[in-house]
User: Fold Cyclase from Acrocarpospora pleiomorpha.
Amino acid sequence: MTITGIDPLLAAVRGGLTVYDLARPLFVGMPQSPNHPAYWRTLPRRHGDRVRGDGGSAANDMLVMGTHVGTHIDALAHVSHDGLLHGGADAQLACREGGYPDHGVHTIEPMFRRGVLLDIPRLGRPCPGGYEITPADLELAESTQSTPVGPGDVVLIRSGWGRHFDDPDRTRYLGHDTGVPGIGEAGAYWLAERGVHAAGADTIAFERLGPGRGHSSLPAHRVLLVEAGIYLIETMALEELAAVGVHEFTFVLAPLPLHGATGSPVRPLAVVGGA
Amino acid sequence: MTITGIDPLLAAVRGGLTVYDLARPLFVGMPQSPNHPAYWRTLPRRHGDRVRGDGGSAANDMLVMGTHVGTHIDALAHVSHDGLLHGGADAQLACREGGYPDHGVHTIEPMFRRGVLLDIPRLGRPCPGGYEITPADLELAESTQSTPVGPGDVVLIRSGWGRHFDDPDRTRYLGHDTGVPGIGEAGAYWLAERGVHAAGADTIAFERLGPGRGHSSLPAHRVLLVEAGIYLIETMALEELAAVGVHEFTFVLAPLPLHGATGSPVRPLAVVGGA
Amino acid sequence: MTITGIDPLLAAVRGGLTVYDLARPLFVGMPQSPNHPAYWRTLPRRHGDRVRGDGGSAANDMLVMGTHVGTHIDALAHVSHDGLLHGGADAQLACREGGYPDHGVHTIEPMFRRGVLLDIPRLGRPCPGGYEITPADLELAESTQSTPVGPGDVVLIRSGWGRHFDDPDRTRYLGHDTGVPGIGEAGAYWLAERGVHAAGADTIAFERLGPGRGHSSLPAHRVLLVEAGIYLIETMALEELAAVGVHEFTFVLAPLPLHGATGSPVRPLAVVGGA
Amino acid sequence: MTITGIDPLLAAVRGGLTVYDLARPLFVGMPQSPNHPAYWRTLPRRHGDRVRGDGGSAANDMLVMGTHVGTHIDALAHVSHDGLLHGGADAQLACREGGYPDHGVHTIEPMFRRGVLLDIPRLGRPCPGGYEITPADLELAESTQSTPVGPGDVVLIRSGWGRHFDDPDRTRYLGHDTGVPGIGEAGAYWLAERGVHAAGADTIAFERLGPGRGHSSLPAHRVLLVEAGIYLIETMALEELAAVGVHEFTFVLAPLPLHGATGSPVRPLAVVGGA
Assistant:
């Protein structure tokens, strides 16, 4: 049995934590890729529909959604290249009875890891649609912030594009015509070389999308998910974290154990102790 | 900026954590209440269905489910009594445009709290179907384990019924004919008096269900969700935690921010530091 | 028992029928209103996923959709005005346990009725976006075609807008910016005075939509569904019928008996005998 | 243009029709196979949720369901044997982008055909669970009723099991433990030899199911769907037709044009003219 007061984690919790929510709210009509089933939530039963004799009543929901909508994590099952998944498994044979038992999102361990926010706009480099964030950008952020990226870290790359999430024009954030900023192949190799555990961004596809190009080519997905086995987290809310200048933190994320799924909606958190 | 090494939380993380997964896996055909839309996950696209010119291919999922299936948390919007939600809001008027903006699951803050497992079978008290776990049982567990329950804690009550989750007879765990063990009204008041923040159990409805009674009366839901404003977590996996004898831990849970929803599937964790 | 050869319907069938399909195909990505859950169809199981010992294998689908997507019929439950449904029922009280038992689509009898196509563009009147088809237009079509509209008929009004259904720009058919042609309040009263049973059109909302106005005002829905109790059929495929010049026919339609629903996807047919 | 009064079909319609509904209502909780996604219908929007300035309000639905639930038709894409679909196509290669473009339910033409009800219990042969309806039974019904079955007909086989559809025990109709009556391999060959276009029954799987055997072997599906290319219609409502003794009629059925789907919910009708 754990003795109260000895557990350093519980002691840290008691010392006070500040929790930053890195998830976007999920609501009908939110910006999302048309490649995935849209988020819908309805109430099959509302209060008053059926009241028990003792005065009790329950309301409940039905959810319909893709696993790559809202803030979500990509499992290794999500992307293949030349017919192979990460580790060399045949992508078609890896699917058994309608799921990916060996590469699904249920295989991702809950994360309690050092997190680093690399805040590119803070460097004075605005990231317009289609801008490719380079290794030089990443390294400048690292050094300016004094937050070197190391093995096992979770790295969150802020382009500032997240400011469009709430735009009344729901297509603005998707950026089909404008493109979307993000890292490209070079940035992906940089992350892979650092040995990060997972990487996230404030955009819908994590990596740079060229204007008018859509998802026709996703080299960073290939490098990270297929070659390096690094998980991707998309559509993150990074504005608050950037506004308060928190660049290093404990990153906490626990995907839903959707057996065999290619991804999961998640609620990632950045947590700071000693508050 | 947070300086590396100063943050006691990050220091605890670096010191090593043991993470116990308290969520059941989500899979088609899993035991769940027929009152809620069943869990379904399918792959609209599999690898090989559409391969881009560069050799890349993506697979993705569609999810359909209720928010009270699998391991999940009940928001205050879930239950009303005599037409009122917790805090006295009119339950029908609280629904706006198909959701509960003030009482929905999106209003539940992520939890990093002291967690206590009250392991009833360990006391030599097996909990058969329909058994009501009493305040005396709860207090005996508290004292035997040296884990007093206090304000703000998250209390998990293990009846041992979770062993039926994997029964090939998917109705066994639901226990319609046998009843299901759990606390009743008295146990609910005991938790409310202790001022706990949330309470969970290894059963489908958290509280005791009488044999053949189904969900016809749910007094603990009324006391906890409506009267006391205490969240409930159902269908938890508590067997591993019990097997290793961990009774006190940091409880971590972050519901999906499903705007206006009455509940959310979750992946709760029990975490122990200094491992 | 019916004696073969005596039944005039069966005799007509044996004499040969020409069947015109008035339904649009249902496919993922088809044009539809964002007000309704999008059509999705996936295969939870494909051939080869699970092969029985005897060599047999089954594939199956999951559907997710609104009931007002694709070619569909509006039940009287769909629209209310000043809180009342057709016949004066209170629209909120008419909903019981999440459905409309008295006004739902299950109350619509299958139709075998005289159908009339009023082909407006054939009159030399192209119908651009936002064009209001007037009673004068309807009467000119009636007389030119020698197809007077009478009580109990089903009237299909072709604006020609259906040609945009297959436009690669999926928003073209919706016509948000351009508006969509159709009848307005005056045309609706004209149909109601003729005593038609149901009315359909080749557009997404049956009636005229003003440029940039969306569904902010739907007077023909009010007149027909609420005041007159006339069913509406939307997103019909009328191009083939117009091309071959068939203006009078047997109209056949059988909604799915979705208990309590506000509408149903349908496959309406125009059938001509003696072919 | 068709001249009014000449069309024999329209003349038959005007002469009066009696329409028998052969579809079961679709409602949440109805009996259905657990192999398929369950039917759910909810109202994302109810009257009063959002009222426009002019007093108008719309309610709408979300549907979730398999295509083999409720009264439905099986397309040729549904079943394969030894890796082949009807006509010899490779069942795995026949699936393209998540659907069956060549064998899907959208390829089934709307049916206006002679229909024959073969009413087995009327012969004094009750059909208990697991009873196999033999070719001799079918021929006795044919001759007793004076309704010979011929090429292109649609044959509906009534076992009487449909009386269990409304049983409060929703598993009764499924008949897992009791078995379900129906034709077997011999009956299937009999239908194939007669050259029927489609065949239906009042049970969930069309063919006989042995007690406790479930769907482990479905020889009639193989013979009809794979070998003979004959469509199957399941979970039909045949009680009313039998009660009034109508054994020959015009059978009308139009599947939803669900592109690439393995089946479709349908509302089949038996229609008699000259009423």
